[in-house]
Amino acid sequence: MVSLERSKKKVQLWKKAIVHFLLCFVMGFFTGFAPTGKSSLFSTRNIAIPKIPQSNQTQPNILHHARLESQTFNKPLSDETTTTTITTVASEWSNLNDTRHSEEVLEEEEEEEGEERQEQEQDQDQDQDQEREEANGEFLNPRRLLIIVTPTSAKDQNRGILLRRLSNTLRLIPQPILWVVVEQQNEDSNVSEILRKTGIMYRHLVYKENFTNIHEEVDHQRNVALNHIEHHKLSGIVHFASLSNVYDLSFFDQLRAIEGFGTWPMALLSANKKEVIIEGPVCDSSEVMGWHLKKANNSTDERPPIRVSSVAFNSSILWDPERWGRTSSIQDTSQDSLKFVRKEVLEDETKLMGIPPDDCSKILLWNLPLST
Fold first, then answer.
1. Site annotation (Interaction with galactose moiety of substrate glycoprotein): which residues (predicted)?
2. pTM of the entire structure?
3. Is residue 170 part of a domain?
4. Which pLDDT does position 30 carry in this prediction?
5. What residue numbers bound the domain in which 356 lies?
6. Lesser CB count within 10 Å: N end or C end of the chain?
């Protein structure tokens, strides 16, 4: 009997131990499946509580700090996520505003550049319109041909230098221009070569006659040029340009304004003498009132000699008799066309136009012969 009771007690002890073991096992098993997102009593998270210096603080303050730490510890993760989301949205909104501001600045700069381009295009269009108007004006009213007649002589040692100097001046004149150069026939002459290199439209005329008087030879050369103009009916303004002449370029613009005859004062310079002699007309505006005389005490009634370098005329007087009253326009080698021009100039001063028209006393032409 005693042994049976002992065996029953041992069996009950084993049953209790097994029950406790099963309970612990079940508790541990379900604890393992518990959610870890929230804090619980089973969490082993350590809380760092700042040390509070010892002072006369009361117990309620300590409890208050503990409650704050507990609230911070037990704060759900959703609050932190919401804060992060708000911060992200704010930063994206700020970036969007910055992008919009940059786009506005770029649009303003593009608008300013567009306005500047429009202004430049308008200026260019105005310049082009002005150029077209000037071109149309030149087309409707073309420049008149200038016929520059230059006699030369092989006896002049500086002829090549003076021809190149005058050609450099003529190249600066607006076209059209025709340079008629006359010389005595000579196989050794280099005038043709010089003229070809100038780039100016020219005509090179020669003659066979011999002269002992230099002034007679020069007048003959001028007549050769005038006969050529008359024969070919060249239409333009004729001017006799000596190799020793020095010009103001505005002088040639004034020549193109001549309708019939034009005249101007000319300054005669000397390389060896310290004096200047003025020859040509005395004007009131563009009206010729008289002539400069070399000697102030000249009391004769005769007309002063006219230097042809001080006169220009319309070439049509040589080949249009009906307009200018000449007896014939037929080519005549014995005809002295230069004498006719001088006669026309001296017969009626009202035919002459002083240039420049606003102030005929202004010097635009100088004659400076070089010593040989």
1. 279
2. 0.61
3. yes
4. 78
5. 146-367
6. N
Judge whether 24 lies within some domain: no
Does residue 154 form part of some domain? yes
For the stretch 119-133, pLDDT in tens is 888 877 777 777 776
The verdict on residue 175 lying in a domain is yes
Q: Which residues of the chain have pLDDT under 70?
A: 1-5, 34-98, 100-101, 133-140, 293-305, 324-335, 371-372
CATH number at residue 162: 3.90.550.10
Q: What is the 3-state secondary structure (H, E, C) of the chain?
A: CHHHHHHHHHHHHHHHHHHHHHHHHHHHHHHHCCCCCCCCCCCCCCCCCCCCCCCCCCHHHHHHHHHHHHHHHCCCHHHHHHHHHHHHHHHHHHHHHHHHHHHHHHHHHHHHHHHHHHHHHHHHHHHHHHHHHHHHHHHHCCCCCEEEEEECCCCCCCHHHHHHHHHHHHCCCCCCEEEEEEEECCCCCCHHHHHHCCCCCEEEEEECCCCCCHHHHHHHHHHHHHHHHHHHCCCCEEEECCCCEEECCHHHHHHCCCCCEEECCEEEECCCCCCEEEECEEEECCEEEEECCCCCCCCCCCCCCCCHHHEEEECHHHHCHHHHCCCCCCCCCCCCHHHHHHHHHHHCHHHEEECCCCCCCCCCEEECCCCC
